[in-house]
Write a structure and sequence with these properties.
mainly beta, 6-stranded antiparallel β-barrel, 1 helix, 6 strands, disordered C terminus
Length: about 110
């Protein structure tokens, strides 16, 4: 059983997530999130990305694109398929995007555009 070290509440939210290895503009892919918090996103994909890899993350909430630089915190191989579950911690995010994300997750699913 894995020890849960999360500090922030996760929300089950499935949205398309585009991710790139930082410094390489070729997209690794687009996946669907498993969950999102103010501090990170859980994703599942077909490509192994080693822990500690820095990524650029983009996803849409309502009509706003939220962008972040994140780090792969952990990777687990699915026992039922050859897919990888990954936790990505947000390291850097525009303060307006971070505030929008927090408002969206707190139940105000349509925070005002700023």
């Amino acid at each position: 059983m894995q020890n849960n070290k999360r500090r922030l509440r996760r929300y089950n939210l499935e949205v398309p997530v585009k991710y790139y290895v930082r410094g390489n503009q070729a997209a690794l892919g687009t996946v669907t999130s498993d969950n999102i918090s103010a501090g990170g996103v859980g994703i599942t994909g077909d490509v192994f990305i080693p822990p500690a890899t820095n990524l650029m993350i983009q996803f849409m909430l309502a009509k706003r694109c939220v962008c972040s630089i994140g780090k792969v915190a952990w990777v687990n191989v699915s026992s039922r398929s050859s897919r990888y579950r990954m936790g990505v911690e947000f390291l850097e995010m525009n303060p307006l995007d971070r505030e929008y994300l927090k408002k969206y997750l707190s139940g105000s699913n349509s925070p005002e555009e700023q």
